Structures are given as C-alpha cells and as structure tokens.
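hey so i finally got around to running the thing on that chain from the lab meeting. sorry it took forever, my laptop kept dying and i had to restart like 3 times. anyway pasting the input first so we r on the same page abt which one it is
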Amino acid sequence: MSKNYFQIIRSGINTTFQDLGRKNLCHIGIPFSGAMDNRNYLLANKLVGNALDFPVIEFAYQGPLLKYFGDKINIVITGDVKFKVKKNNNEIDGNCYECFNLENEDELNIFSTNKSVYGYLAISGEFDIKRQWESCSVNTKANIGANNGKKLENNQKINISRINKNLNKKKLNYINTKIENIRIIKGTNFDYFSEQGKKIFLEKEFIVSKLSDRMGMRLEGPKIENTVDTNIKSEGLIKGVIQVPADGNPIIMLSDHGTIGGYPKIGVVISADYDKLVQLSPGSKIKFKEVELSSAENLFKLYDLETQNLISQI
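ok and heres what got predicted. didnt touch it at all, straight out
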C-alpha cells in the first residue's frame, strides 16, 4: 500500500490522466488522445522536475479538490487557473507556473479555469497508474487508458509510486495569450463547397458551441453551403481537421476524435494554433485565416522553438 496519495474530495469536470498520447494506432481505430494543450502539459512536468512525458492530471473548467497524505511533495498547476492550497486551516492563493509544496493532510482546491477550458496538475514524482499501448492517456469514449479509461471520481484514491528527491521550488513567468485568428490550410474536400460557402468560412465569425469536448468542437454561425455531396465515403481523420455536415455548421476534430469520418473536410487547423484553439470556451468567437502549407510548417517550427525556449528557462 502506498503511503503517499491523494484523496479526491471533489473530482471536478472531466478530470483525467493524460500524457503525450498514443502513436501509430489510428489504423485500428485508436486516436492519439494525450494532453489537449501540449505546451502547458510540457511546462507542468518541467517545473516539478519530471521527464517531459510523465502523466499529469488534466481538468476542464472546474478542477478537483484533493487532500494529500504522505511525505512532502511539490505540485504545480499550468494554464489560466484559480486555485488555493490549504495548510493547517490557512489558505494560500495559488499562482500558475509556480511550485508549491504539499505536506501531510494539506488540501489543494482547484476552483476553475479563467475564460479558458483546460488546466494541468503535475506532481514531483509519479502517479501509480497503468499504461495501455505505452500511454496512460484516458479516452473516456473508448474506456482506454489509466483508471480503466474513466474520469476521476469523488472519494477515489490516487496513489503515488515515487517522489522526486529534488524538491526545489521553481517558477516561470508565462502568460497564456489569446489568438485573433485560427489559421488553417485547405482540406481535401475544399472544392465541395460553393464560392459563397468558402467565402463565409474564411471571412465570417463562428461561435464555439456548448457541444464541445475532448473529441470535437462544434461551431455555430452562418451556414457553409456544400454543392457536391454532404456525405462522402468514410476517410481517415486527423487532429484539427474541420468537417462540415449537412447542417452547414463546422466541427473541428480534437484529441479524442474518431479515426474515420464521412463528412466533407473544408480545412485543417495548423498545429501551431492547436493549443490556443482548445482553450476557447463555449461562447468564444472564431475566425479562420488560410495559410499555405509551407507557412504552416514554418509557424510550427517557431511555435516549437518558443516552447523549447520556455522549457530551457526552467
């Protein structure tokens, strides 16, 4: 029995274990999954001195309330999140990207994300959880991953198998920024849509609907007209692809997306913009901007370089 563990008092909304996800399994219907906001995931692990591929706890909107039992440990929360640490009835306001130590019977209360969706909790050590296909990432639609592929629940116990010896408290000055436009490249079925439909897609605003989760983001707004066929033979899908069903409202495939689909694909969100895309909460406005493939590649190189520079500062 582990002597170091968290007791979940309140599980929060869509609280799961995530890491970098699974590779090369789409041919058998298993998507990548993994942390929705990759940069915040990597920064969380680096701040507590972990390897960059260690599992973390991802939460959406409201986070968990946890009581800790065991030896001293460091924790960090990344994203745009409001939280407090309770020590002997004294509450300490938490700051994202700053390590805090937890001691026996301390509580961590993650209230909510601020005008965003996902936040991350990393510990200076390893959760005692099982992997499936070399990843712990939970996909609740398929019941795949750690915790039997399910969300964390009230009164559940999370064991910790190891705590890092180095408990230095680190801090990073980083602010999550919003993005004015979501940049895309043309999809394979771009020409299925009328000239007016294409113009609407690239010039009008869309609203993120409440029907959004780790699998996909549904948008509402002016209808995009399809003049060829609203259903096609099912084809492979990738993260970030934008499908348009018969109702004319786009759906963006996210990390737990189905691996095939039969709606025409009008565009694909570039990888450099994906982290900011997933943090758009319901009611947020989206406007798309087309870029060429070569530009998308260069933008991703810049995004990756910026991420590595942030990691090197820690």
